[in-house]
């Protein structure tokens, strides 16, 4: 073992090595991006195990994303001849889920409890609001969702929240009723996972002592982004004598909006009597220009704990800046560059396109599909959020937990089986009257509604002893879902085919899941579908470009990175302007984005962008201005005009052929709109078309409205009719 000990430490610099070899006391490693924090943390686990200082089961390691925990496990396997799958390495949510599954009785949960994702949670809240007659104009469901989440993340139950005014009191009522409903239905939301687990450990002394005895070493990556409840959870597990090893970077704190608290770092020093704070200042990730840009940007923030980053690498290339006329052009530019880099030998998985908001991925996906670039969207919950997948999961959920009212409501009449809105209302009333779940009420109601209960029960008994993929297969066939889409004809046929492909993809996901996991039960799979949403949408293992939000990119690194949508209002986000410290948080986010790149960095923005059905004309991001000019290389001519006609004058090259002269304006299809035509719009009223560009789903039209003035509208959303 002595030999492997040396191997483990040999690649590290003296500070990193000191951190890995720290005695079993609590410690904080405070260090900038790319300085080896995660590497140190992983190496420390290997070091402790290989030197017999702890057994693999005595380690608890918290990572920020599922992707990060998989990577950590893979690295550990490479360093140690042990099976890392059974180790307690995961996200806060993942680890809490595991604890609650193991002790579901003590936690007062059904064995097969299901997890609500954000949209499930919203429908659950809406049902509660309806039952309590709460006006959803005065109390937007999304606001209530935030209210509930925020309080739970502070460790507060409904009865512990202070009510200053009638408005808040009403919100607390909904909060309480929502929690009761969840309990009745056997479901938990994301923040409940943590709170429930925390309460379990704090109330149950025996269990707490058992785990305190077990986890001698607790290691936390990205510590700056833990919220107060997570911190208390860690404190509880650490007890009096276990070692908490935390690594973090205050400059990368990007979850304050969700209650994360950098102050945790100060608390840690105090609560755990930390004597040694180790700083790591050498960056091993990025070339000099990239690091200089990141350092220059973050130096504008106030209240930093202060560390300098340097690199022994050479300067490398300048940062490439591209200004596009429209978001579509920006996306095409990115797709072209990706193909170009790929031809030069950079693997697709070594490249990432980052954006501030999920909504931006649509244009990017469009261009990538057109250019034939395979990609995977991370963290966007794309796959598991698709309608047909949610339907299929709802059936599967009902098999394991018939009390799940959300799921029942989703599929009781999908595919249509003649159960109308009135029957569903009756069903809900009956459930309320007898204080039962919908499923129980349905069993008594008779007719088609009871037929649905029979269908679920039939499927349950038919699949009781089947392996997971066969369960999924059976449910897709017998629920009628597959047939429903297969029978689609006419205009919907194409869309239906996509849905069928996705359902088959779900089957693949189940097969892969069995292959990769020890616990391959249906419950485990459903948990995975909620907790790891979006991480298995493309074939696993294939080379694909990464598409993700900047938040999701934390901790990762790539050869080449595109930061897209660098526009004022988008990044920095509009919301940040009204919040105290909001701009600083956006700047830290930009710092995270910049420091993901090892070798090449693209910064792109568009003059006009279609978001939420509206064309917006934006200014270049102030963050771009904050980067030293000498580090930037402009790939596009700088455009000054910001009128729509400016992008007629500068048409981008067509996809895949950078050498072609500017493409002429796309012709408007026969039978489509023409200049001078009189039109009618639902909101803006009557007007006359004065400009056109593009066609199909990308088409835009300029209309001079009688009362609303001149506007550019996206044809796909504007729903114009001719007047
Ligand atoms: P972030 O703040 O972005 O999470 P980090 O501090 O966790 O970054 P790592 O991801 O651990 O940094 O390391 C960044 C890169 O530098 C990795 O590719 C890692 O393998 C490499 N690296 C770290 N330390 C060394 C070293 N001593 N020698 C060579 N490469 C190193
Ligand atoms: Mg890291």
TrEMBL record:
The keyword ATP-binding applies. GO terms for biological process: recombinational repair. Gene3D superfamilies: 1.10.10.160, P-loop containing nucleotide triphosphate hydrolases, PCRA, domain 4. It comes from the Bacteria. Its EC number is 5.6.2.4. Keywords: ATP-binding, DNA-binding, Helicase, Hydrolase, Isomerase, Nucleotide-binding. SUPFAM superfamilies: P-loop containing nucleoside triphosphate hydrolases (SSF52540). The keyword Ribonucleoprotein does not apply. ATP binds at residues 31-38. It catalyses: ATP + H2O = ADP + phosphate + H(+); Couples ATP hydrolysis with the unwinding of duplex DNA by translocating in the 3'-5' direction. Residues 288-555 form the UvrD-like helicase C-terminal domain. GO terms for cellular component: cytosol; DNA helicase complex. Belongs to the helicase family. UvrD subfamily. This is DNA 3'-5' helicase. It comes from Ferriphaselus amnicola. The lineage of its organism: Bacteria, Pseudomonadati, Pseudomonadota, Betaproteobacteria, Nitrosomonadales.
């Amino acid at each position: 073992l002595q030999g492997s000990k040396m191997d483990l430490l040999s690649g590290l610099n003296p500070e990193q090595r000191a951190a890995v070899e720290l005695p079993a006391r609590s410690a904080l490693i405070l260090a900038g991006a790319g300085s080896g924090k995660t590497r140190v943390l992983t190496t420390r686990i290997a070091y402790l195990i290989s030197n017999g200082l702890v057994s693999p089961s005595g380690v608890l390691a918290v990572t920020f994303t599922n992707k990060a925990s998989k990577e950590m496990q893979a690295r550990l396997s490479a360093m140690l001849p042990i099976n890392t799958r059974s180790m307690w390495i995961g996200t806060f949510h993942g680890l809490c889920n595991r604890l609650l599954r193991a002790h579901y009785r003590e936690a007062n949960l059904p064995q097969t409890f299901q997890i609500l994702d954000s949209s499930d949670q919203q429908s659950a809240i809406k049902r509660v609001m309806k039952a309590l007659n709460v006006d959803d104009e005065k109390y937007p469901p999304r606001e209530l969702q935030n209210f509930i989440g925020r309080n739970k993340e502070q460790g507060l139950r409904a009865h512990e929240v202070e009510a200053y005014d009638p408005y808040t009191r009403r919100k607390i009522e909904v909060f309480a009723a929502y929690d009761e409903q969840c309990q009745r239905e056997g479901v938990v939301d994301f923040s409940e996972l943590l709170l429930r687990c925390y309460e379990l450990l704090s109330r149950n002394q025996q269990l707490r002592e058992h785990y305190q005895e077990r986890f001698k070493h607790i290691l936390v990556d990205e510590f700056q982004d833990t919220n107060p409840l997570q911190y208390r959870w860690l404190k509880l597990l650490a007890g009096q004598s276990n070692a908490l090893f935390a690594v973090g970077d205050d400059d990368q704190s990007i979850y304050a909006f969700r209650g994360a608290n950098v102050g945790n770092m100060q608390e840690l020093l105090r609560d755990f009597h930390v004597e040694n704070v180790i700083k790591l200042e050498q960056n091993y990730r990025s070339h000099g220009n990239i690091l200089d840009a990141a350092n220059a940007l973050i130096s504008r923030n106030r209240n930093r704990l202060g560390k300098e980053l340097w690199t022994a690498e050479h300067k490398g290339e300048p940062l490439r800046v591209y200004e596009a006329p429209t978001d579509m052009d920006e996306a095409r530019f990115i797709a072209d560059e990706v193909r170009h880099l790929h031809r030069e030998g950079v693997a697709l998985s070594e490249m990432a396109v980052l954006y501030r908001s999920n909504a931006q991925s649509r244009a990017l996906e469009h261009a990538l599909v057109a250019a034939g670039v395979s990609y995977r969207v991370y963290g966007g919950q794309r796959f598991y959020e698709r309608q047909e997948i949610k339907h299929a999961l709802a059936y599967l959920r009902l098999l394991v937990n018939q009390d799940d009212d959300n799921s029942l409501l989703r599929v009781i009449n999908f595919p249509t089986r003649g159960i109308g809105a009135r029957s569903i209302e009756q069903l809900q009333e009956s459930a309320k009257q007898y204080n039962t779940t919908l499923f129980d009420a349905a069993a008594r109601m008779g007719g088609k509604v009871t037929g649905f209960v029979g269908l679920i029960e039939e499927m349950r008994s038919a699949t009781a002893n089947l392996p997971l993929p066969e369960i999924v297969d059976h449910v897709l066939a017998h629920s009628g879902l597959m047939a429903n889409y297969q029978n689609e004809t006419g205009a919907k046929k194409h869309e239906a085919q996509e849905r069928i492909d996705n359902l088959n993809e779900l089957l693949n996901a189940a097969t892969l899941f069995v292959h990769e996991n020890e616990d391959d039960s249906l419950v485990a799979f459903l948990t995975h579908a909620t907790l790891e949403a979006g991480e298995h949408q493309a074939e696993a293992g294939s080379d694909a470009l990464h598409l993700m939000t900047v938040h999701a990119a934390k901790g990762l690194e790539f050869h080449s990175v595109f930061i897209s949508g660098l526009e004022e209002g988008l990044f920095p986000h509009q919301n940040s302007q009204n919040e105290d410290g909001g701009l600083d948080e956006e700047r830290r986010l930009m710092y995270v984005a910049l420091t993901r790149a090892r070798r090449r960095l693209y910064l792109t923005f568009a003059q006009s962008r279609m978001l939420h059905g509206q064309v917006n004309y934006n200014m270049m991001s102030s963050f771009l201005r904050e980067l030293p000019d000498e580090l930037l290389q402009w790939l596009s001519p700088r455009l000054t005009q910001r009128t729509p006609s400016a992008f007629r004058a500068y048409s981008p090259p067509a996809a895949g052929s950078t050498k072609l002269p500017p493409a002429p304006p796309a012709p408007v299809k026969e039978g489509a709109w023409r200049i001078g035509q009189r039109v009618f719009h639902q909101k803006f009223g009557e007007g006359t078309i004065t400009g056109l560009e593009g066609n199909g789903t990308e088409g835009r039209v300029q209309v001079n409205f009688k009362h609303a003035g001149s506007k550019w509208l996206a044809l796909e959303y504007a729903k114009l009719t001719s007047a």
